[in-house]
Amino acid sequence: MAIEVRIPTILRTYTDGQKAVEGKGDTLAELFTDLETRHAGIQARIVDDGQLRRFVNVYLNDEDVRFLDGINTKLSDGDNVTILPAVAGGMV
């Protein structure tokens, strides 16, 4: 099962600069564990205590996984997962 994972600039140090990597897993949790085997350190930037980090947004085929089953969201062959850090700030 091949799943494309789009990596934000801030996490590309873990993927040797790659904008996208392939992974496998039946759920997001399994996918992130799989990614960790090839890109050491990336999982800790996405997951904390078995849940998605508060300031990390993850999309499955353009749907926010927080409105699906979160880290337990089921995946299928050919899915696209996008990881985006939350952005805050602005002018006061």
TrEMBL record:
SUPFAM superfamilies referenced in this protein's UniProt entry, alphabetically: MoaD/ThiS
Concerning InterPro entries, the annotation shows:
Beta-grasp_dom_sf, Mopterin_synth/thiamin_S_b, Sulfur_Carrier/Prot_Modifier, ThiS/MoaD-like
In its UniProt entry, what is this protein called? Molybdopterin synthase sulfur carrier subunit
Give a single Pfam family match.
ThiS
The scientific name of the source species is Streptomyces qaidamensis
